[in-house]
Specification:
By secondary structure, the chain is of the alpha+beta class. Helices cover 48% and strands 22% of the residues. It contains 9 helices and 10 strands. A hairpin with a 2-residue loop joins strand 4 (154-158) and strand 5.
């Protein structure tokens, strides 16, 4: 029986991996679709639109010669323009023979479509699940916070510091910062406080005052509420919780993620996406300044698929979609060889000097950059699975 359960569990996880790969492939398709749509509008000749790499599985050719291909390896895709990597192609429709501003638009369009998808995913996330703000629910009449907090209050800050996921200032983090700032030690009589045992260790709870910055009926107010701070038997801070009675049962209220209204989701989806883009840029900046600090959290495609599969299994894949879409938009605009950002720099240089850069030099830079990039993601994935799994 246990073998059957183990097999069923394994197959279920394989299903999550398949879903993760398909989602990632969909993100890539959105990116390439941006190049394709911009290319069609600006009269570029497109030879092939491919999803995946390697041997072709399916292919359809339009009357104008454009090929739409599904390939075996679901590791990306491409939109192949006429003469894109060639020198000396005389066709007026060839990529390198069209005006620089047109090429810049086509190159930028992939990331732009990724960002548009981030906005759409953000809207869906905010209206269906919410993300950052906290809602107070079911305030009990026995609660010390009964006349302070009300069901439906939306917490947007603690002690005057706003919840801000870009800087990792989540609700729980702000509560902890407030306690450590104002009550880092338990200096009361531990024997007179509610205690409980966990894994053989005794912990004590002490009520601490917290200033909640809340939105109630459209107004922003600050109220003085209370939270339980948890300390070990040495009086050192060990966490926080809602208040409990002498039996350890909840006598307070519950916390939930605030789900935005339709209009709020519509208004916030764009700034929410920009916040994710800025967060991605901050991570890249930190990676340059202090790469070792981010090594445990870094990962290549394999790690990304694993994280997405794990998240799918827990039912929260929707939380990742805006972040992944914004990540792809920002990453592709970075001036890294073989990525769109670097190709845009080549086009801008050509535009300024009124003369194209030697195509062999560009191809060599792109090939070397691609090999280095592939090598790095492989090393990061291997390192992650060996040392940080």
């Amino acid at each position: 029986m246990s073998c059957l359960l183990s097999f069923a569990s394994t197959m279920k996880y394989v299903g999550y991996i398949v879903i993760a790969i398909l989602v990632l492939l969909f993100m890539v398709m959105i990116h390439e679709l941006g190049h394709y749509v911009a290319g069609k509008i600006l009269k570029f000749k497109i030879n092939e639109f491919s999803i995946g790499f390697g041997p072709k599985i399916l292919q359809k050719t339009k009357k104008n010669g454009e090929k739409f291909t599904l390939r075996l390896l679901p590791l990306g895709g491409y939109c192949a323009f006429e003469g894109e990597d060639e020198a000396g192609n005389e066709s007026k429709e060839a990529f390198n023979n069209l005006k620089p501003w047109k090429r810049l638009i086509v190159l930028f369009a992939g990331a732009f479509f990724n960002f548009l998808s981030a906005i759409i995913f953000s809207f869906i996330l905010l209206i269906s699940m919410g993300y950052d703000l906290v809602e107070i629910k079911d305030v009990k009449t026995t609660s010390i916070n009964y006349e302070v907090l009300q069901s439906g209050d939306v917490v947007y800050g603690v002690d005057g510091v706003k919840i801000d996921f870009v800087n990792d200032k989540y609700f729980g983090v702000l509560i902890e910062d407030s306690i450590l700032k104002n009550h880092p030690k338990n200096d009361g009589n531990l024997e007179d406080q509610y205690s409980y045992t966990d894994n053989g260790k005794t912990y004590y709870m002490n009520t601490r005052d917290i200033k909640f910055n809340i939105r109630r009926n459209g107004k922003h107010i600050t109220v003085d509420g209370y939270i339980n701070a948890i300390y070990n038997d040495k009086g050192e801070y060990a966490g926080w919780s809602l208040l409990k009675d002498e039996k350890g049962e909840d006598k307070e209220f519950s916390l939930g993620t605030y789900r935005y209204t339709f209009l709020e989701s519509l208004a916030q989806s764009v700034p929410f996406s920009f916040k994710w883009a800025w967060k991605v840029l901050k991570v890249f900046g930190q990676l340059i300044v202090n790469p070792s600090s981010l090594l445990p959290s870094l990962g290549g495609p394999v790690t990304t698929i694993k994280v997405m599969a794990d998240t799918t299994g827990s039912g929260y894949l929707l939380l990742l979609l805006p972040a992944i879409a914004a990540n792809l938009a920002v990453f592709n605009l970075l001036p890294i060889p073989a990525l769109d950002g670097c190709q845009m720099i080549f086009v801008i240089i050509e535009w300024i000097r009124k003369k194209p850069i030697n195509r062999k030099v560009i191809n060599a830079i792109n090939n070397i950059g691609l090999l280095v990039l592939l090598g790095l993601v492989v090393i990061i994935d291997v390192t992650h699975f060996i040392f940080f799994r």
